[in-house]
Amino acid sequence: QVQLVESGGGLVQAGGSLRLSCAASGRTFSSYAMGWFRQAPGKEREFVAAITGAYGTTRYAESVKGRFTISRDIGKNMVYLQMNVLKPEDTAVYYCAVGPVISGSPGLYEYMYDSWGQGTQVTVSS
């Protein structure tokens, strides 16, 4: 059974940075894709970024391109989300997920992922 544990969330001022981490166990990450999603209060969960384990192919939501960077450490079965120039609208619970690689790329939608972490809160104050 896959277990995903996120960490690194917190409270930061607008313009600041945070680095989220996700530790995966129970599955060899190198054969799968890892994604970050977020859910703000009163909104649906949305895609943020994703990466394939084998080749490091990445995908980003338009709203975070140029500010967020996803990376992975295959040996440690870890995935990271470096978030820079944070904005109040980035406030949300951030979730890590794992799923199959889709035609060589990581999935962009929730249904493409089959295991999820419990989430970590990110709050950006203005």
Explain what the structure shows:
It contains no helices and eleven strands. It has strands at 3-7, 10-13, 18-25, 33-39, 46-52, 58-60, 68-73, 78-83, 92-99, 115-116, 120-125. The N and C termini lie far apart (40 Å). The mean pLDDT is 95.
User: Unreliable segments (pLDDT under 50, ≥5 consecutive)?
Assistant: none
Distance between the termini: 40 Å
Q: What is the count of β-strands?
A: 11
Q: Give helix and strand order, one letter per element, not per position.
A: EEEEEEEEEEE
Shape: globular
Fraction in beta strands: over 45%
Radius of gyration: 13 Å
Helix content: under 10%
Q: How confident is the prediction overall: mean pLDDT?
A: 95
Question: Can you summarize the main beta sheet?
Answer: 7 strands, mixed
By DSSP (H or I, 4+ residues per run), the number of helices equals: 0
Class by SSE composition: mainly beta
